[in-house]
Design brief:
It is a multi-pass membrane protein. The protein is mainly β. It is built from 4 helices and 44 strands. The chain has 3 domains: 96 residues, Immunoglobulin-like (Sandwich), CATH 2.60.40.1120; 125 residues, Ferric Hydroxamate Uptake Protein, Chain A, domain 1, CATH 2.170.130.10; 561 residues, Maltoporin, Chain A (Beta Barrel).
């Protein structure tokens, strides 16, 4: 027995020694504050072995043979750490990283961001959150599980033309900035994510402000804003190869590399991407290319950065949607069969950015930018009228031909340039935080159309323009905002913005009308509020904000000049509470958004038969949003959000074409207290994360959207049905010797194969009642079906 005990003791000591030899473990903290650092990089130089610190700042590298090693650790905003270690190593390492003395890039977006004391409703999305879902789909799809968001895709698979709505507000009412620089199209106010393929791979973080939010640059914030910051400096050199593939022949290939910090001052980063997909809808293919290059100088008090990025897209058009009567039998129907029915566009962006501090109290940010966009979409038009193109009938012998097959191209060639700036003052006692900012931007865009082929040749040449017009838009704004700590933990907030728009256009529109005109707008947008940090760690806030928005280009060009639509006005009240504790974070808020003169489609026609938007006097959105996450233990985390809302127009007039009348006319129908189109009364999402072992994460993602109407009549025959979907995601990190890290991701979308549509449109008209007297109403609904069960899988190598 004594011999057995001795043997066991010797074996146990040996086991402990072996275990000590094969494991390096420890924790990483901020040396100044003692706070744990989550996601810090730790690796043994020259071995290809490494890891990242977990939620508690701990790390572990297993199976390390005996010998001498150089252990390195790094984290953004901190100086790199290096230490020689000898294996076997019996002690647990305690690493404290020192904050860097180099000026950080945080202030680049500070002017347009909300902080924890800002009395508005917002959600921060980190690079880690984005990367978990980033397998080639556009950014709207990656934000689908954030509060009050509904995402959709024309092709049905999340690649190509995609969009999102927040609180029912479409992309033209959502302000988007990248590094504080406006991204919305100056004329349509929209953002075309298809022109920015794989942009998510160069994003460091996003802040989504719902409601009016704080003052920003560019288009009016009339429902929400997306404030995007691109990749920030990495201190260590790196390289990444990221490839993914999936259903509908979807492919994404991305290569990234960076120099790290050179000579403790300089850094260069670059990305090159290619995405292709056949799409869920027939022929809804996408061929997308992009690159991103950034170079920067980082001093103790100043940062200079140059960002150059570009996207080129060729997508087969799936704009028409699927008729309602085909949803059961041919959900992937595409009206277009011409082999080059494509949209072709390229956008190049140049940003020169400065951020710096002066003394202890002042910071400054300025940026110059230039965007060059050009491209066309090509369409086959069967038996089209020659009069649409200003052409006389073609006479051949005694035959007069007024119609023929035509292939046309509609072009857009534009320049967008300007500058933005901000100055920030922070008092010595920290009570005053004051900021002055603004910007001035010009858009110069040419719109023109060409006929490139005719079934029967007419008196036109291949490069003749059948319409040609130019628009120049100047957009200037200046704002002053400040936070004052009136008493301990009570912060008062004020934000005053003045915005001026001068818009002029000349030439002939695509409906052959002269649209020459000048429009000017001057807006004052005040915002006030307060926040209170309670002793239990929660922050209460309330605010009142005003926004004004000019009509979009087509509101001017399509409307009769005597009936130019009025600008829209929004008054927004936000009230809520947010808290972040060790295991539990939550946000709860109420909002009320009152619109005056909101522009909506009514069915009204202009003098050449195009539908126009009209002002409705009074409408509103009101709702409650809940957002939270709870970490049960080291393995399980539960999260989710839900929004309940009421979205109403007080009085609305619908115009319906009457083809049954002896002379064509439109019939007017009055409505009151009806739902605003595309505004579901309930939107919910839930995410369950499970980590059965250290480097494996399994997530279930659930989304629910209640029914929403295609127009403002609240007609049950013109709506999108409620839908829910469930996605399953697997993320696994490996650390083989030949790379620092290898990440494998599998995303199974719509695992229950739900058939649903998240976008569509409708129109109605009266026709004679066949075989009977009178007339009948015909309603045509078109939908954009989303894919059933499909998958995306990716593998990323980090060197």
């Amino acid at each position: 027995m004594k011999k057995l005990t001795t043997t066991l003791a010797i074996w146990l000591v040996g086991f402990v020694a072996v275990y000590a030899q094969t494991k390096v473990s420890g924790s990483i903290k901020d040396s100044a504050t003692g706070e744990v650092l989550v996601g810090a990089n730790v690796f043994l130089e020259g071995t290809g072995r490494g890891t990242t610190s977990d939620r508690e700042g701990k790390f572990e590298i297993k199976n390390v043979p005996e010998g001498s090693y150089s252990l390195k650790a790094s984290f953004i905003g901190f100086e790199s750490f290096s230490q020689k270690i000898e294996m076997p190593l019996s002690e647990t390492l305690e690493i404290g990283l020192v904050p860097t003395n180099l000026y950080t890039e945080e202030f680049i977006v500070y002017a347009t961001r909300a902080s924890e004391t800002t009395p508005t409703t917002f959600k921060n999305v980190s690079k880690e959150d984005i990367s978990k879902l980033n397998l080639g789909q556009d950014l709207p799809m990656l934000l689908n599980f954030t509060p009050s968001v509904v995402s959709f895709s024309d092709a049905g698979a999340g690649v190509g033309y995609t969009g999102l709505r927040i609180r029912g507000s479409d992309q033209s009412r959502i302000n988007v900035t990248v590094n504080g620089i406006p991204m919305n199209d100056a004329e349509s106010h929209g953002v075309f994510w298809v022109n920015m393929p794989d942009f998510a791979s160069s994003v460091d973080n996003i802040q989504i402000q719902r409601g009016v939010g704080t003052s920003t640059n560019g288009a009016a914030t009339f429902g929400a804003s997306l404030n995007i910051q691109t990749d920030t400096r990495r201190d260590e050199a790196y390289a990444e190869v990221d490839n993914s593939f999936g259903s509908f022949n979807t492919r994404r290939h991305t290569v990234k590399a960076g120099t790290g910090l050179l000579n403790n001052k300089w850094a260069v980063d670059a990305r090159l991407s290619r995405i292709s997909s056949d799409g869920y809808i027939d022929r809804a293919s996408s061929d997308l290319k992009s690159y991103f290059v950034s170079g920067g100088y980082y001093g103790e008090n100043h940062v200079f950065k140059l960002n150059v990025f570009s996207g080129a897209e060729k997508t087969y058009q799936a704009w028409e949607g699927v008729p309602e009567n085909l949803l059961e039998t041919n959900r992937t129907f595409n009206l277009y069969t011409y082999d080059n029915q494509t949209d072709n566009y390229q956008q190049d962006h140049y940003q020169f950015i400065y951020a710096g501090k002066f003394g202890n109290n002042w910071k400054a940010n300025a940026a110059l930018h230039y965007t060059y966009g050009r491209g066309y979409y090509e369409q086959f038009r069967k038996n089209d009228r020659l009069t649409r193109y200003g052409l006389a009938p073609i006479v051949i012998g005694e035959t007069s031909i007024a119609r023929t097959d035509i292939i046309r191209r509609r072009w857009l060639d534009n320049d967008f340039f300007g500058g933005v700036f901000s100055f920030n003052y922070l008092s010595d006692d920290g009570k005053w935080d004051v900021l002055l900012g603004g910007g001035a931007n010009r858009y110069d865009g040419d719109h023109f159309g060409e006929i490139i082929w005719m079934g029967t040749s007419g008196s036109t040449q291949i490069r003749d323009r059948y319409y040609d017009n130019t628009a120049v838009k100047d957009d200037r704004n200046i704002y002053a905002k400040g936070t004052f700590e009136a008493r301990e933990r009570l912060f008062l907030f004020a934000d005053l913005q003045f915005r001026g728009i001068d818009y002029r256009f000349t030439g002939i529109n695509n409906d052959l009308r002269d649209i020459s005109g000048v429009q000017e707008f001057r807006f004052f947008n005040p915002k006030f509020g307060f926040s209170y940090e309670a002793s239990n760690g929660a922050t209460w806030y309330a605010s009142y904000a005003v926004a004004n928005r000019e009509p979009v280009r087509r509101d001017f060009t399509d409307s009769p000049l005597t009936e130019t639509p009025r600008p829209e006005n929004l008054q927004n009240i936000e009230f809520g509470i947010r808290a972040q504790k060790e295991r539990f974070t939550y946000n709860a808020n109420f909002y009320y958004m009152k619109y005056k003169d909101q522009l909506v489609l009514t069915g009204q026609l202009n003098d050449v038969g195009s539908y126009i938007r009209e002002n409705v006097a009074n409408s509103y959105r009101a709702g409650i949003e809940l957002d939270g996450a709870y970490r049960l233990n080291s393995k399980w985390t539960l999260g989710g959000n839900i929004a309940f809302s009421r979205n109403k127009i007080a009085a609305f007039t619908e115009y319906i074409d009457d083809y049954a009348a002896a002379d064509f006319r439109q019939e007017e129908i009055q409505y009151s207290d009806v739902d605003i189109a595309f505004s579901p009364n309930m939107i919910g999402a839930a995410i369950i994360d499970f980590k059965p072992i250290k480097d494996l994460e399994i997530s279930f993602l659930y989304k629910y959207v209640s029914e929403q109407f295609l127009d403002n009549t609240q007609d049950a025959n013109r709506k999108l049905d409620a839908y829910w979907t469930g996605d399953l995601r697997f993320n696994y990190a490996l650390r083989p010797r030949f790379v620092k890290n290898m990440e494998v991701t599998l995303l199974v979308n719509n695992i229950f194969n739900r058939l649903y549509e998240s976008n569509g449109y409708t129109f109605s008209y009266f026709v004679p009642n066949e075989g009977q007297s009178g007339r009948e109403l015909v309603t045509e609904n078109f939908y954009y079906p989303q894919a059933g069960t499909n998958f995306l899988a990716g593998i990323k190598f980090l060197f």
